[in-house]
Amino acid sequence: MSDLAIFPLTDEHKMLRDAARDFAQNEIVPVAADFDESGEFPHATIKKMGGMGFMGIEVPEAYGGAGMDSLAYVLALEEICKADAAHGVIMSVNNSLYCHGILKFGTEEQKKKFIEPIASGKAIGAYSLTEPMSGSDAGTMKSRATRDGDFYILNGRKSWVTSGPVADYLVVFMMTDPEKKQKGVSAFLLETKDLAGFIRGKKEPKLGIRASATSELIFDNCRVPASSLLGKEGEGFKIAMTVLDAGRIGIASQALGIAEAAYEAARSYATQREAFGQPIGAFQGTGFKLADMKTRIEATRLLIYNAALAKERSKTTGERYSQEAAMAKLFASETAMFVTHQAVQIHGGMGYSKELPVERYFRDAKITEIYEGTSEIQRLVISRAELGFK
Ligand code: CAA
Question: Which of 264, 372, 376, 386 is catalytic?
Answer without folding.
Answer: 372
